[in-house]
Each structure stands twice: as structure tokens, then as C-alpha cells.
Prior knowledge:
The complex is a heterodimer of chains A (82) and B (370).
Chain A: H1 3-15, H2 19-28, H3 35-42, H4 50-66
Helix pairs in contact in A: 1-4, 2-4
Chain B: E1 7-13, E2 16-25, H1 30-42, E3 47-58, H2 60-73, E4 79-83, H3 87-95, E5 103-104, H4 119-132, H5 149-165, E6 171-178, E7 181-187, H6 190-202, H7 206-213, E8 217-219, H8 232-237, E9 242-250, E10 253-262, H9 270-289, H10 296-324, H11 328-342, H12 346-359
Parallel strand pairs in B: 2-3, 3-4, 4-5
Antiparallel strand pairs in B: 1-2, 6-7, 6-10, 8-9, 9-10
Helix pairs in contact in B: 1-2, 2-10, 5-9, 10-11, 10-12, 11-12
Amino acid sequence: xxxxxxxxxxxxxxxxxxxxxxxxxxxxxxxxxxxxxxxxxxxxxxxxxxxxxxxxxxxxxxxxxxxxxxxxxxxxxxxxxx
Amino acid sequence: xxxxxxxxxxxxxxxxxxxxxxxxxxxxxxxxxxxxxxxxxxxxxxxxxxxxxxxxxxxxxxxxxxxxxxxxxxxxxxxxxxxxxxxxxxxxxxxxxxxxxxxxxxxxxxxxxxxxxxxxxxxxxxxxxxxxxxxxxxxxxxxxxxxxxxxxxxxxxxxxxxxxxxxxxxxxxxxxxxxxxxxxxxxxxxxxxxxxxxxxxxxxxxxxxxxxxxxxxxxxxxxxxxxxxxxxxxxxxxxxxxxxxxxxxxxxxxxxxxxxxxxxxxxxxxxxxxxxxxxxxxxxxxxxxxxxxxxxxxxxxxxxxxxxxxxxxxxxxxxxxxxxxxxxxxxxxxxxxxxxxxxxxxxxxxxxxxxxxxxxxxxxxxxxxx
Lengths: 82, 370
């Protein structure tokens, strides 16, 4: 697992979303990866593009907002990590 | 992705039709399958068999076509069956709950293209399905059994536990969507049942919102509440002052709510909210284990909603790209930052942007960059 995929998978668990639920949210936001690809990204088997990473991060962050939280998952566009 | 590579070939016998689907089923090709299925349904087919052995990919737009077909043949006792489903496609069908709505088989039946299933065999199968439609309930379209005593009993237990455990609770209920309608499955007393009924009747209230949107709603005090204007007077007349509604889900899809009512305003502390979440999670587990499924209508609605949101976001992205002369990624980042800074969901930011531009002949300059 990469540090980034770790953050996403940990975020998914904390947010209490199944892989399927997260995919539906990601899909709604315009995601183009299949459910299987999304799972592979979360497990670190596939490296997400910056835009894919941000979509997943945002899907999780909107869930955290629903739960009364903030935006704990960082976006690729806002970090220096390549 | 590749509209040229997509084909839907139909063989039609009496009330059954075999459709062999090849290529990639996505936004570009879904209309072709929709046309093919509409055609056979219009010609009287009620048992649809789709051989998808050579279907390389399917996304939600393909799923929407299948659900639409299922909805059209379902009321007449018809069936939809998918054969030779590949693993990736199966995964999508499982994730979206479609496997509970239609017969989905990984094996191919007979030969690779399923041709031997046509003719007499298929007619016989269709007759068999029609005969058993009344009793066997092959499809679970009606979702929750109308009176599932075990499920209801378990939910009543959850209601009782919530009532005695949550400090501020004067009454607790569980609402579930059954055959497209919300109804109260368990309630601690008549006032609470009336509170629920008032929400179903007006289509408003925290219980309805939680069941539809799948997130919790907390009314700290009805004195200050501005949402649900039709429902609030009814609630007040029943002496209720604060409400906490937590969504219930089955296999991840919202199908109801756990409602906690109090006569006192501000009755629910954060600890009570946490308890409500725990009880709702337990009730959701019961519903999921009982195989309670979403109906095709609800599933179709969910996917329809997702597709509409995607479209709004893509439109908003396009507007920002032409306005600011930026790449798609940068445009998306702008949208996302507006959403994060304003606390408005990205879907709503996109929707507002698209409708504001549609409303003005000359797009007004927008100050939405952080």
C-alpha cells in the first residue's frame, strides 16, 4: 500500500462506507473507474491518477461532512507529493 | 467507448426472447440495447434472456437499461435473466443489488452463445416461470415480505432498547419503505405512530428525509425549525419538540429510518446521537441479513440520480473550463474547492452554477475562487 491509498482505505473504513457505497458516490461525482478498479486503488494495487484520487477523496470528505465532520482526506491538488 | 464494437442480436420465440449482447455497454451503447429490448417487449416478449458472454464491460447506464426492461415486464409476471456473466460485470450487478432483482447466472446454459436455449426449451422455460410466478417468487421485486414477522419482531426489540437506553427519548419508531411506501413497522405508542404518519402524509419531516437521503436529521427544537413547513404544525399539535432520525439501510441502500422523539427541546445530547447510530446500525444489519432488498424502482431512481448529478458536474466543469481557460482537472478542482469552502455538496455547487448560467443570457462573472 502506498501512503495515499492507505489514507483513502482508512478513510473509507472510518466513514463506514462499503466499497460499493463508496463507488456509487464516486461514480455520482463523475468517476470513470469500475468498482473493481476502485477497490484496486484502495488496496494500493493500482495507482490513482491525481483526478481519480481527488474524486475518491472528495466522495469520502462529503461523507464526513454528512457525519458532522470536516474534510480530513487531503487532495492531490493540494499536496506536493507527485 | 467503442460504439462500433457493440452489438445486440435478438432471437425471438413466442413470449420469450434471447438477446446476445457483445462489446461494451456504456453511455454510448446503452440506447442500442434499450431499443433492442423495447422492441422485443413491444412484440410481446415477457421472458427476456440476455447472453452476455461477450460483454466486455458494463457501466451504470447499461444497468439502467436492464432495470427499465425489468420494470416493464415485471408487472406482467415477466422475467429477466442474464447468462454467462463475467466476473467484472457480476461485481457491478452485485454491488448495485441487481442480482436480487433478476436471475444472474455465471454459466452459459448450453452452448457459448446460448442458441440452444431458444426455441422450444426457452418457451418451456417461459411457461414454467409464468406458472411459478404466483407462488415461488423467483424474483424479489416486492423486496421486503409484507409481513415478515421475524424482521418486525427484531425491529420492535430495537425500538424498545432504544427507548429505554436513550435518555431524552419519549418515543421511538422504525419506518421502512415497503412496496415504495414508507410505513411504521414498530412504534412505542400511538402518538409516535401519528408522528410518523404525519410525515408520510405530507411527504415531509426528518424521518422521510433520513429514509430518502440516507443521512441523519436532528431537529433540536421545533420552535426554530424552518425545514418541512407542512409537517411542523402537526408535530407541535402532538406535543413533540425535538426529533432525531437516523437512516436504516439494507445492503447499503437507505430504506427507512429510526426515529426518536422527545417532548422537550434539545433533548438529545451527542451521546444519545451516538447511541441512535449504534441502534440504527444494528437494525440495518437485521434488514441486510434478512435479505431485504431495494425494489427496482428505488434502484433505478438511485442510478438515475447519480447519472443526473454526473451530468450537472460535467456541465459545470465545461462552463469553468471555457470561462477560465483551464484544463478539466483544474476546473474540477475549482468546483471542489468551492464545495469544500462553502460546505455545499459538489453536486449542489454544480447544479447552482449550471442553473445560474442557464437563467442569465450573459453569464455574470462569478466570484467563486478561493
